[in-house]
Design a protein that fits this description.
Elements lengths: L6 E8 L2 E5 L1 E3 L6 E8 L2 E4 L4 E8 L2 E8 L2 H19 L13 H15 L2 H18 L9 H13 L18 H19 L10 H4 L11 H9 L3 H13 L3 H5 L6 E2 L4 E4 L20 E4 L2 H11 L19 H11 L9 H14 L4 H8 L4 H5 L2 H17 L6 H11 L4
Antiparallel strand pairs: 1-2, 1-6, 3-4, 4-5, 6-7, 8-9, 9-10
């Protein structure tokens, strides 16, 4: 009889691991709460995770995820147990194909993201995946195809974005190829995670929604000079770190003095966890920590600032908390320098850093490490505008000088082609 029993468990996070735990049954009313399970024999409250069933097929123990509700898992267990008993009696039992609801799979995936990633990442993924779910009009994960994802990409490129609740002032406009690529990539990542597929597998590949960078916008030397000319000392140093270290906005917001190594001339991008003496947490993008080599002059300026600081963070607010208004500060400085708000924003310092490094001879792999990119393609996009300019310069150097007489033209072309 052992292989005909079906058990209901809930997969929850205990510490840094996901474990499957039996339900906690209230002794007074003999009922099960969706959020209560037994962990090591003791009741714990775990709102995250999904209920599922354990059963045997021959000698193999199998797990089938059902969803966030206990009763749905209990019903699935009853149906499975009846099917197993029928087979044991020699009956031919045709079970309905075990498909996973798209809504259920999405809820489970987002719960994992909510626990393991930043609130901003969770909100973005939730918004994008729900847009796909509401558009695709399919109920089950197993019914999704590559054609659905390609049609979703077309929908994004041809349909204006619906105004968001948090940004009602924005005028609806068509989304860019980059936005479509990001959304398709997120849907495919969700699909891969659900079915346990390897990178490169899923509803499609990166080539299906790849977008081409035509022009990476960077700051010119004149723009930088005008910007820094109106900066106060603190902002001058802050935006020089953005420019010469290529940090992301949050990486600078959560940078601590312990992250600065004055011996090796590096700034470390590390994870920050909530502790007794901290009121924040931060995890680098894709969970990738790194060391960024920076100019010695920049390190010396940071070390000098440390002597005046009484907080753990390098660029905190007056109360010592992460500064969430760096973007606004950048816009104010740009206005003082005579630029429009659209001209200056924080992330363009990172693009300028990458382009300048490549333009001045740093190899692509080194720039990838400095930026913290997980794949070389993300770094290669900063070559797009650079290569175009280099090609133009080479063409001008070869063909640029104009000759005015047939004789001089003949000798010039003969010299160029090695026929003189």
């Amino acid at each position: 009889m052992a292989n005909r029993k079906v058990a209901v468990y809930k997969q929850v996070r205990v510490g840094d691991m996901w474990v499957k735990c039996p339900p906690y049954i209230n002794k007074k009313n003999h009922k099960v709460d969706n959020d209560k399970v037994l962990v090591g024999g003791k009741m714990e409250v775990h709102p995250e995770g999904n209920w599922g069933i354990f059963y045997y097929e021959g000698d193999k123990r199998k797990w089938q995820r059902v969803g966030p509700k206990y009763q749905a898992a209990r019903d699935a267990a009853d149906v499975k147990e009846l099917a197993l008993r029928g087979r044991a009696k020699g009956l031919v039992v045709e079970e309905k194909g075990e498909k996973t609801l798209l809504r259920t799979a999405m809820h489970a995936f987002l719960e994992d993201i909510r626990i393991s990633r930043s609130p901003k990442t969770y909100a973005l993924l939730k918004y994008d995946l729900e847009e796909f779910r509401d558009w695709v009009k399919k109920d089950y994960m197993e019914d999704l195809t590559r054609k659905d994802l390609m049609a979703f990409k077309h929908h994004i490129l041809t349909t204006p974005e619906v105004p968001r609740a948090d940004k009602p002032h924005l005028v609806p406009k068509l989304r860019s190829e980059r936005t479509a690529a990001n959304k398709c990539g997120e849907v495919n990542s969700f699909y891969r995670a659900h079915f346990g597929l390897k990178p490169g597998e899923g509803l499609g590949t990166g080539k299906d929604w790849k977008w081409t960078v035509k022009n990476v916008k960077v700051y010119s030397a004149d723009e930088l000079a005008r910007f820094f000319a109106v900066c106060k000392p603190k902002h001058d140093l802050m935006f020089n770190v953005f420019l010469k270290a290529g940090l992301r906005k949050q990486e600078l917001q959560f940078m601590e003095w312990d992250d600065i190594d004055p011996v090796e001339n590096v700034i470390k991008v590390t994870e920050k966890r909530i502790g007794k003496d901290r009121s924040y947490k931060f995890k680098p993008k894709m969970g990738t920590e790194r060391e960024v080599t920076v100019p010695k002059e920049l390190i010396e300026r940071l070390v000098a600032l440390k002597e005046q600081s009484k907080f753990r963070l390098v660029f905190p607010t007056r109360s010592g908390k992460p500064d969430k208004k760096i973007w606004d500060g950048c816009q104010r400085i740009a206005r003082r320098a005579g630029f429009t708000e659209a001209t200056f924003h924080v992330h363009r310092f990172r693009a300028t850093f990458a382009s300048y490094c490549l333009q001045r001879g740093m190899d692509l792999k080194s720039v990838q490490g400095q930026l913290g990119h997980t794949n070389i393609e993300s770094t290669s996009r900063y070559l797009a505008g650079l290569e175009g300019q280099q090609k133009r310069d080479k063409v001008e150097a070869i063909w640029g000088p104009q000759v005015t007489t047939p004789a001089s033209a003949s000798s010039a072309y003969a010299e160029l082609l090695g026929e003189a």
